[in-house]
Amino acid sequence: MRPAMRRWRNNASFSLLLVFFLLVPLHSEAQSQVNFWETPLPVFELHSGFWINLHHTLYYEARQSKAVGSREANVDKSATPSAKQVPPAKPPLAAVEQKTWDDAVSYYAANYANKDLLFTTELIQLKDQLGDFEDCDELSGRKRKFCDAGLSPNLTQVLEAVAPVYRAHFWAEHDRANRRWILQVAPLVREQGVGLSERLADIYQTRWPHQKIRVDVVAFANWAGAYTTVDPLRVTIASLDSRNQGPQALEVLFHEGSHGIAEPVQTAIIRECRQRDKPIPRDLWHALVFYTTGEVIRTVLTSSPAAPQNKGGSGSGNGNGYSAYAFREGLYQRGWKGYLELLQRFWQPYLDGKATFDDAIARMVSSL
Ligand SMILES: [Zn+2]
Question: Which of 44, 163, 332, 361 could join 340 via S-S bond, C-beta 3.0 to 4.6 A?
Fold first, then answer.
């Protein structure tokens, strides 16, 4: 980040300017250049960047095109839930634009569609790189040297060729959806962000990252609707995914952020398993992170004036009408039922201050 922007961070006039950009639709040419930068929020910096959105849209389309009638369609259906997105109606493209678009999708289908956004180093680096170059209207450095993103010549050519088509027909809508998502979650982050980050760091017996966590808001993310990569710690969240809307947006944000601080849990689980000669359960730490974020967010949402009104009973992650993500999306029912019982029995007392971290983990592991 440039020092000048950093100095602006807490500047009131910059906030106003940003609110202006958020609320006033800009001319499309200007809009592609105006980056969202960061709203003056604590804990997270939220971006809606052009190239990273184009990248994920092409990846999404390439996956879709490969899934139609292919073996992969069956794999997707049986193994992992697919993205819960209703793609916006596709705008009509002129023949030459359609050809450019199809070529780019084919390139992604051939090179990336079989690779996982979360587990493939190449795709992680590419995503981070495209995020960093959100201020550039090119990636080759032809016009401005500092806009040389250092990508392969083939990919640079594909992205630069398809960029005008994306800009003309998709970007305005995607950017609007991203900004809407950011606007929806911003008041709660502003009001509760610091407290939540401290509470979660406390629970995981660590510190929340000193620097704000960069979040790239994109129209399409991966099959899960959001994912987090580390070193550098960055979150990608789909603004059009139905699972990420309403009060759940805050939970998704902090769940993803928790991926950066939950390592002590995994370390403790592994240690306890080794001591007992037990196989290390693959997803227990992740179920624990889902459970914990859900509980912490539920508590906050029931007391926050900035929260959308929630009314109702309590229990099962459903207190005061707030349905925690893992309950709502059926994660426990789909194979984590045993984990839920362990979490409610041994981890919840720790969250309530009635047990220690080490005891809670040890008891969970010994009951596996
Ligand atoms: Zn997760």
Answer: 332
